[in-house]
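Re: How this chain folds, sequence and tokenised backbone to follow

Filed under: protein folding, tokenised backbone structure, sequence and structure records.

Contents: The amino acid chain and a row of whole-number tokens, matched residue for residue.

Body of memo: The sequence and its backbone structure tokens, given next.
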Amino acid sequence: MFDLRYHVASLAAVFLALIIGILVGVGISDPVDNAKTALLEQKVADLQKRLDQTAQQAGNIGREEEAARTFITQTYPVLVRDRLRGRRIAVVFVGSVDGGVRSAVTHALTDSGGQQLRLRALQVPIDAQQIDALLASHPDAGRFAGQGRFEALGRALGQELMLGAETPLWNVLTDALVEQREGGSKDLADGVIVVRTAKPQRDGTSRFLLGLYSGLGSAGVPAVGVEATDARNSAVSVYRQAGLSSVDDIDTPAGRLALVLLLEGAPGGQYGLKKTAEAPLPTLPTLVGPGG
């Protein structure tokens, strides 16, 4: 939604340069006749007219955006009420917990009647040697051998985190992987929210995280990656690659509404304000009242 504003700024710079070029060209050239002068003046007027029209369009869109933001802010409490009533959502931070994003996520769950089932904040990069040593005594260690072992391990951990019950891998690796832990591991999760606060990773950690995201998204319940509008390193492309939906403006009412709708079961995709978004919001499902 900000592309047109950038376009206006670019056009303004281009038009100004053209106008200056025309005027300077006139000033250093040989004397010109009235016809040439009139032609140059007409070019300047045309450029100014185009700039004015583009600025007017940007102004109209700006007002429409402001009206839309105001509408969503005012109607947000009604639109999200009870949509996640009784649903238990897992929250996974890749990196340390970010207070601002966590607050936005908590507001979205509280406002919609959902609850945080468990939270895990993962330490990255992973210590490959430590993990290999811990897995050596695990009955299923053979599953996590060879070049693709970290992606397979991440996928298995993601599935365990969502399904709950017995979590043998997490039991072995929690001390090596988890920086902060809240909530138990037994109950089945109805959805998961992923937040990457760490910078993009490489090598084994990158493959581990891709597997983790895929595992979280393979449990048959909504899996959504979120970030704030001012996130320094967007993770949207990684979420998309792993098959997760995403919301890139969780710090806004529209972003929290998008998150709630996705967790409720709206069509997956990439939503928000950034260029990677497909649309600002998913389709708004209709709540059926007591009378049908």
Observations:
- The first strand starts at residue 88 and ends at 94.
